[in-house]
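Q: What changes when protoporphyrin IX containing FE is included in the input?
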Amino acid sequence: MYGLVNQAVEGLVRRDFGDAAWEQIKADANLDVDVFISNESYDDSLTYKLVASATKVLGVDATTVLTVFGRYWVLTTARESYGELLMATGRSLPDFLHNLPNLHSRVTLLYRRLRPPIFRVEQIGDSKVHVHYQSHRAGLEAFVVGLLEGLGQLFETPCAVRQLGERDEQNPACTFEVTW
Ligand code: HEM
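A: The predicted holo structure follows.
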């Protein structure tokens, strides 16, 4: 994944757990990179290694790391560095979710080698949607939950997010129900 993702993991750990925790995570992951370059593409295994080491060093499970990271991505990384893109995607939670399927095609204009997830959004009721998620990467469902919860916080529209079904090799897609 692009360096900005690893940079954000670093930013979250340093902010909430301190510089020493980050140094420990880097050592545990055998990371030989000192500074991540945001527009350079890194092997996905590096990001997975960072998450695995964070669970060990911080003593929390991977689901928690990924969920907290999803919220941080929206509320800190995206808000501070991609505010215009966020606001162009939507000004309210329903509006943003409606446009979510197009968001990463805009990001691809900035990062040409992006391998983005695919989203499809289905309106279920006045304040309920199903977000269908598909990706060639495994194990990031908790990240999606955190991202969607973060959007609820961003737009001051608290929402409940529930994963419907599991992804596996036979079924690479899954659905999240978002209710507000
Ligand atoms: C302006 C805001 C955003 C930017 C700049 C952005 C950018 C990115 C980038 C650079 C990656 C790494 C992919 C790669 O390097 O190949 C990524 C991955 C991802 N993004 Fe976004 N993103 C944004 C907002 C969102 C939002 C709001 C959601 C969902 C609600 C989302 C869902 C994901 C997921 C799930 C992945 C993990 C990759 C995967 O599942 O295959 N992103 N995004």
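Observations recorded in class: The pocket of protoporphyrin IX containing FE is lined by residues 1-2, 4-5, 74, 78, 82, 85-86, 100, 103-104, 107, 111, 114-117, 135, 137, 140, 143-144, 147-148 (CB under 6 Å).
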